[in-house]
Amino acid sequence: MDRKTELLKRIPLFGNLNEQELLIITEYTQQSDYTEGSILFKNGDRSTSCYIVDKGEIRIVQDAYLDRDNTLAFFIEGEIFGEFDLFENDPRTATAIAHCDSSLLIFPGEGQELEVLYNKHPDIFVKMYHTLITLNAGRIRRTNKVITEKSSWINDLKEQMYKDKLTNFYNQTYLDDEVPGLLKQFDKTGLLVVKPDDFKSVNDTFGHEAGDRALKAISSTVISALGDNEIPIRFRGNEFIVAYFGRSADEAIESAQELFRKLSDLDIGDLIADRTLKLTYSMGLAEYPAQGETIETVIQLAYAKMFEQRDSGGSGIRTAETLIDNLIPFLQTVTVFSPLYISELKIISGFLKPHTYKQDSIICSEGDEGNELFIIESGGATASIRVDDEEEKIISEFSPGDFFGEMAIFENALRSATITAREDSVILALDKNDFFSLMDKWPLVAIKIMRGMLDITSGRLSSTGRFISEMVKWGDNASRRAITDELSGLYNRRYLDSSLTEQFGKAQRNGSTLSIIMADLDLFREVNESYSHETGDRYIVEVASIFKKCLRSTDIIARYGGDEFTIVLPDTDIASARQLAENIRADVAKLDFLKELPGPDLHLSTSLGLAAFPDHCSSIEDLKKRADEALYKAKETGRNKVVFCGD
Q1: At 128, is the secondary structure helix, strand, or coil?
Q2: Per the omega criterion (within 30 degrees of 0), is the bond before 600 cis?
Q3: CATH says 3-120 is which class?
Q4: How far apart are CA 404 and CA 385, in angstroms?
Q5: Cα 325 to Cα 510: distance, rounded to the nearest angstrom
Q6: CA 365: distance to chain centroid?
Q7: pTM for the predicted model, two decimal places
Q8: Domain 328-467 grouped into CATH 2.60.120.10
Q9: CATH class of domain segment(s) 172-319
């Protein structure tokens, strides 16, 4: 066996061929030499051959004429490239350049056409197509495995990104990212906006930690009152939304009234004071899409009704007014069978066996033996893989004319996914032994079918590859969003809690000082009510910008609640912390953007409370409590000032 044949034998594409068949392939293979920098083919060229590197190295680039490096891959001795473009009859998707002086085998050689060769030697080419589909199936299986292994990581990130830590409600990010898609699944959705009438007095009288305990009790009551397709979303501070998916406002009102009764009966006094304390609640109810084409419009309408109720004394619900049978013809439509002649379709139809499946019934299960290939005649199906003990992830959906199950047949492996009928369906089954019989008796027919399969499975492989790339990008973004407050761009409460614990531990171990500042925006409620919530949002953004400007890279600033902020100052003594706080207070007092807007003359400012470890406390809880007490004193004694614990 000469060197050329020996090299071909080591290539997977030709690995299933016997010695005589290899010699035939060798006859159609040409050896060519290329000097460094020579272009073998360009992006967009017609695919006429595949290449095997005998000596040297080939570089694959996106565009040979780009100034920047745009290398996609390298191929070295013993490797093959260009085979999928060739056998799928697709144009080149990149440019190949000799990275150094190189010698290559080219199949088929100059003057040879692939279609002529496989018509001449169908017994050989049916094996080669089988090998290519098997390779694709293996790649798809490996990418599905990556998806399976990484899905729990994605779910954990989603939990962090979409859940509010204090209330365990969904958050504003979930409202922006996920709710629009959920709304499309239902023809109607009631949206209820809920606000405690005087929650600010709880914070002002008993402190922010007491307010947090009260919010936890309120959120637990809400969660226990909700049923299927009903979700709570924390919207702003102590305001939240309940979405009643699949129910109109009229249908949701009874549930809203029951929630109102449960909240009105909730006694939060035991949590924050030694006396009975019940809050009242104002609620507004509107319906999507009957009362607005966007969710933002409907939420604003529900907000308006809530404020109407609040302005008329609170403690109630206001609802917005309603504005507002022949198999051959079918096989001709199936992509993998469309190149076949009528006579060839009749051969195929003799092998196909129809089966009827009811909606939600299992067609085949993950781990089953793969003995059949399936084509959907009517209805539809989904493919899912198990990602943990309780969850399955849908990875593909199939419609009439689509095929599935080829991976297990060509790899002679167990099913890698569970296929379920998503509606009543008629599915044609092609037995594995019948397909191999087709390959033996009518190899030209089998090649036409497998050519279409190869193209489709390559597309599936590309899609799963893109999915993994997007999953990694999404994960990086989600990791950031899970610890970031969307409005201000500062860290959120989740990051604050973990960072404060870390910094406190360092201060204990190193014997260093850890100071914290708690800040509250003065007149924030008045800005919201006298101007608008959008103006209140701008107030938060402007102050957040000042925080970033005044603080050092080692400091940690987080938006703790609606208009509440906490600053962690590692290795910072009392005097330095006081000076930082005073700088912040002075810069906030200079804010004058309200002068641009019609409304009352409100002077914007911030009150700040400071405490330090180990000077005033021995635990994180005491540190936060002392800073909160100092903040309360700053607000009670005139606002717009800095108060240090002990002042």
Answers
A1: helix
A2: no
A3: mainly beta
A4: 14
A5: 82
A6: 27
A7: 0.56
A8: yes
A9: alpha beta
